[in-house]
Design a protein that fits this description.
Elements lengths: L7 E4 L6 E6 L8 H9 L3 H6 L11 E5 L2 E5 L7 H18 L3 E4 L13 H16 L18 E5 L3 H25 L7 H15 L2 E5 L1 H7 L2 H7 L7 E7 L10 E6 L1 E5 L19 H15 L5 E11 L11 E3 L5 E3 L7 H15 L4 E6 L4 H6 L4 E4 L3 H14 L3 E3 L4 H6 L7 E2 L8 H9 L9 E5 L5 E2 L9 E2 L4 H12 L1
Parallel strand pairs: 1-6, 2-4, 2-5, 5-6, 9-11, 9-14, 10-11, 13-17, 14-18, 15-16
Antiparallel strand pairs: 3-4, 7-8, 8-11, 12-13, 15-18, 19-20
Helix pairs in contact: 3-4, 4-5, 5-9, 5-15, 8-10, 9-15, 10-14, 12-15
Length: about 500
């Protein structure tokens, strides 16, 4: 278990802080705009520039003194993505220095479009810092290496816009880190009931409303999918509903619903995962974790828009009570499903949740997020998520938001032929087709039977980017929190 860094990173008004400025790779001297700042730092920026080995290349960092750091931008135009990486590297240097505060004076001196958008620039830097700082330390034991996380890093900047960007970046990345915390929690702890407790706790501290539909109530309501998937486990399923409805929300305005697959553990059921394929299946709840992380960020930013989170929670286990291939299930909206594969369980719980959401919440838009198929990983790898949506304007909003926040999605088709392919022999539809043709599309096609046709809907399969096996500047191995910032930023776009 690697050593953590700061316990918290947040914005504040420190009395003394390390000044962080930036320079391009081609600069032969400090630009005029930084000379007054250098004087205030006692020449620390110039000392950093002339330190042996510093080239000003992108991500290069030089410490000039205990009050001055110079970061390199390279000669390419800075982007939000490159600034996140810069922030990730910066926080490690600050921690090594023992700094407790940093004044980020990078935004005002950036070349290119971000130089005119200081809030966007500092937001990206703060996101990188907070994402890179996170470690799962809940289970540090007697044999843990290194010191636990401790201390607080306060961030500030010279202008109100830049300070606002830092605060927004911290809140968004904290939402991602909350998703990572939830997703990395082991399945002997993270049961459906535990998820419900986490949601209630979030609601209490964030001014939201939380209701939980129990397994018995779900069965009485006719949620055949959620009931069947949870039947084999001693940990009963449930459906969690969180509501963010601030007074500032526009009457008659948007009512966004976020539905997250929350399978707390997936053995595959009787279609059992073999050859160690079960390892890591605690991450099958990363869609629901991303939704909860997004709701935390939405509430923290006090977005003036009504948002609902719906989490169908279940554990897919094997027992004498578990559902089987060849079972036929009647879903919440009356559609009958022939079960061909009990390892295609996520779409069953999502289907009931989507149908319930349409009928009960009557949203103006719906996004569901899930680690749904291995096929989408084969198609797109871990670099982006797949998106299916026939609501063109809504899809474009999600695509552009994903590009901006670094959580990209890529469009895949959903045609009439795909829907017809899901028609079953002995029920209306089957949960997995007889062939693997269009494997990731089958999940979207199945779910389309449970959403009102007139409601703009997007299905996002995050099976690829939800986790990573290798460390990067922004993430240690494990859950990445992918989707939390994307969903929060989409909600923010709808609030404008």
């Amino acid at each position: 278990m690697p050593c953590s860094m700061y316990r918290t990173i947040r914005t504040g008004a420190p009395r003394r802080a390390v000044t962080v400025a930036a320079i391009t790779g081609s600069a032969k001297r400090l630009p005029t705009s930084l000379r007054a700042l250098d004087t205030a730092c006692g020449g620390g920026l110039e000392a950093a520039r002339t330190r042996p080995g510093f080239t000003g290349s992108a991500g290069d960092i030089s410490v000039g003194s205990d009050t001055a750091i110079l970061v390199g931008l390279g000669d390419a135009t800075p982007t939000a993505a490159s600034l996140r990486v810069l922030g990730a590297r910066l926080v490690r240097v600050l921690h090594t220095m023992g700094a407790s505060a940093a004044r980020i004076e990078v935004a005002a001196h950036l070349p290119g479009p971000l130089g005119k958008r200081p809030a966007a620039a500092t937001q990206a830097i703060a996101e990188g810092m907070v994402l890179a700082n996170w470690r799962q330390e809940t289970w540090r034991g007697a044999a843990a290496k290194g010191d636990p996380a401790k201390g607080t890093l306060l961030l500030t900047a010279g202008t109100g816009a830049a300070r606002g960007g830092l605060r927004r970046g911290c809140l968004l990345a904290e939402g991602s880190n909350e998703a990572r915390r939830l997703g990395s929690t082991p399945p002997n702890i993270a049961t459906p009931a535990w998820i419900a407790r986490q949601a209630r706790s979030l609601a209490k501290r964030s001014g939201m409303k939380c209701t939980v539909i129990s397994a018995a109530k779900a069965r009485d309501l006719g949620m055949g999918g959620l009931t069947a998937v949870g039947m084999g486990s001693a940990n009963a399923p449930c459906l969690v509903h969180l509501t963010w409805k601030p007074d500032s929300a526009r009457p008659g305005g948007e009512r966004l619903a976020l539905v997250g697959k929350t399978i707390t553990y997936d053995t595959g059921g009787y279609s059992l995962k073999i050859s160690n394929g079960m390892k890591g299946m605690k991450y099958d709840m990363c869609g629901g974790a991303a939704v909860l992380g997004a709701m935390q960020a939405i509430a923290a930013m006090k977005l003036p828009v009504e948002v609902h989170a719906v989490l169908p929670c279940a554990e897919n286990m094997v027992s004498e009570r578990a559902y089987r291939p060849d079972d036929i299930i009647t879903m919440y909206n009356g559609v009958t499903v022939e079960v061909t594969n009990t390892d295609a369980e996520g779409r069953l719980v999502l289907a009931d949740a989507l149908a319930w959401t349409c009928k009960t919440i009557k949203p103006t838009r719906i996004i569901d997020m899930a680690t749904l198929t291995g096929g989408v990983v084969v198609a797109l790898g871990e670099w982006c998520a797949g998106i299916w949506s026939r609501a063109a304007d809504f899809r474009r909003l999600i695509e552009s938001t994903g590009d901006d926040c670094g959580e990209q999605v890529w469009r895949l088709p959903l045609w009439k032929e795909h829907r017809e392919f899901m028609r079953a022999n002995h029920a209306d539809i089957w949960n997995s087709g007889p062939k693997r043709d269009g494997h990731p599309i089958q999940g979207a096609a199945f779910l389309s039977y449970f959403v009102d046709p007139e409601t703009p809907w997007a299905h996002i399969d995050i099976a690829g980017p939800a986790t990573t096996d290798t460390a990067s500047d922004l993430h240690e191995p494990g859950p990445t929190g992918f989707g939390a910032r994307l969903l929060a930023e989409v909600a923010s776009g709808l609030a404008r």
